[in-house]
Amino acid sequence: MTTPAPAGPPVLDVKHLRRDYVSSGGFLRPARIVHAVKDVSFTLEKGRTLAVVGESGCGKSTLARMITLIDPPTAGEIRIDGLPASAAHVTRELRQKVQIVFQNPYGSLNPRQKIGDVLAEPLLLNTAMKAPERRERAMAMLTRVGLSPEHFNRYPHMFSGGQRQRIAIARALMLNPSFLVLDEPVSALDLSVQAQILNLLKDLQDEFGLTYVFISHDLSVVRYLADEVMVMYFGDVVEHGSREAVFADPQHEYTRTLFAATPRADVASIRARIARKHAAA
Amino acid sequence: MSLLEIRNLSVAFDTSMGLFKAVDGIDIAVEAREVLAIVGESGSGKSVAMLATMGLLPDSATVTADRMSFEGRDLLAMSGSQKRRIIGKEIAMIFQEPIASLNPCFTVGFQIGEVLHQHLGLTGRAARQRSIELLELVGIRDAADKLGAFPHQMSGGQCQRVMIAMAISCNPKLLIADEPTTALDVTIQKQILDLLVQLQAETGMGLIMITHDMGVVAETADRVIVQYQGHKMEEADVLSLFENPQSNYTRALLSALPENAVGDRLPTVSDMLFEPAPGVRP
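Structure tokens for the assembled complex are given below, as produced in the milestone run.
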């Protein structure tokens, strides 16, 4: 997955990004401001995978919504392929560059839309493509993500969780985006299905030269997929480095806590735990 | 004599597509002072088997078993009121969604007090005192203040602690934890698992952990039952399960863990050649 250093601007360049949420005050009650994301800066090169790690409430999903141009930042600047981007008016060109896959495959597909229409809709909205071509592209993408042509006219409820996540990934790829934000794409899936989706993501990255921003709280998945790791804690980036560096030698106290809390499923750790238990008994 | 002994348990649901067997002929036995993990993916019937034991399934479910006994007492022959004296008191259960399993309309203190009143007859000051003790036991700070809190005012981890406090309030002999940490962050998960294991060691109760997470199994269990589509695939102590898994399904599950990835690809369960157990649905 190591790509040669590309010429030109990075796919994603984020500078001093901040997002505050203001809860409305009431009579005699002052408004409260929550700093969901405080001053986040990073760049991401083409073909790389950046994992954003942290627990709920740390601002990782807020960051995802800002870089996919769904929510506007309170302050700061986002450049995508060198172009300044703003959520206030997203051009068709920008929308084609960035797409997102959400966590819950049961909630992110319209239950009344057939799969073929789900896949063709991004093309309908963002390109001038004619219907037969849209249909053809949707069909090709459907088979590319491991589903069959006969799934084209089915509805979302006829699919399992893993298949739905494949559909969500296919929909995100319809516009050939520069980068894809994956917001916990496997955390709602069973272990065996999770492995299939992770493999699919790796294959697609190799095939289309995709850049991923992968949001997750599962460190074992991050270790498997990521090139770079960014750890967030209460809206701040507390650690950012290559996967090897972060996993081998975590610098920040919180990163170490996170690693220590992750369950270990290797034989040596189990043996140690059983020995501890016998010693205590 | 086992604490809980279940032989040949089957649970079938009456659906519009005909009878669906969620659990098909499973034997489960738990000893006192033992942590048993039941592991499986969604649809493996791991929760349904325990809900059937607790009598918490809807009427559309048909539960049959050759034997279902708790400390030698036959649960199958018991009347509803006899069973209710055991369930919630001697066998307690905690659920996956801590915030959803507490009643949003009542304070935490009221809900713990209700259990104490129902099973131990404690009221008034005695109940309040015991509630505070219980909250302190599960590691909630400012326990006396928190009695007046509603579930929505607490975090997911705190709600799960309250659920555990309610479950252990009558000193149960068996605690069934159904995916107790699935909805929680990994740092909170660690705290809750440590708490459960510590309480189990201190009180000597039996603990059944229902989970889909091999990491949770590795961190807590003494013995493991692996379930797939309503059938038991394997039963072993935790070390031999991870060291030398016998069934192909367990091997597939373990190799699908991202930390066990060899090279660039993860083997998936369908990649593995499958030996179907007798009568497994295709």
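The two ends of chain B are 37 Å apart (CA to CA). Chain B touches chain A through 38 residues (CB under 8 Å). Further analysis is deferred to the final report.
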